[in-house]
Amino acid sequence: MTKNSLRLDHVVLWVADPVAAAAFYETAVGLEPIGVAEYTEGTVPFPSVRVNEETILDLAPHGLAARMKMLPGSADSAGHPVNHVCLALPADAFDALRARLEEHGVPVSGIDSGLSGARGAATRSFYFRDPDGNVVEARHYA
């Protein structure tokens, strides 16, 4: 892990049920849940899922919005998801994710090619929604 270079640390997704969201991201997407037991015990405000060793998705309940006071108007962001979050995967993991989502009955988009991203043009990509309506893109670079 590189501690002294610019990296994306986390993205906060608003969810209705953080435990259910963590279960979805674990079973349908294959991400490791973090802090679910602590959340259910009331010792942390929300659980997360690990994307990789450097990046997590925080699964914040809508009720947490009232505590969002770091900037004026921050509480108003509850329920306003980002357009989408993109996960870049190796080819085999890309195929496995698509198959796992379909096994769980999660609708997926068609496969696009050549969409531009942080690493250039992606070989393949597709989109799906989590149970809270957050849009996730999965992509594979050659």
From TrEMBL:
Domain of life: Bacteria
VOC domain span: 7-141
PROSITE patterns: VOC
Ranges in coiled-coil conformation: none
SUPFAM superfamilies, per the entry: Glyoxalase/Bleomycin resistance protein/Dihydroxybiphenyl dioxygenase (SSF54593)
InterPro entries named in the record: Glyas_Bleomycin-R_OHBP_Dase (IPR029068), Glyas_Fos-R_dOase_dom (IPR004360), GlyoxalaseI/FosfomycinResist (IPR050383), VOC_core (IPR037523)
Protein name: VOC family protein
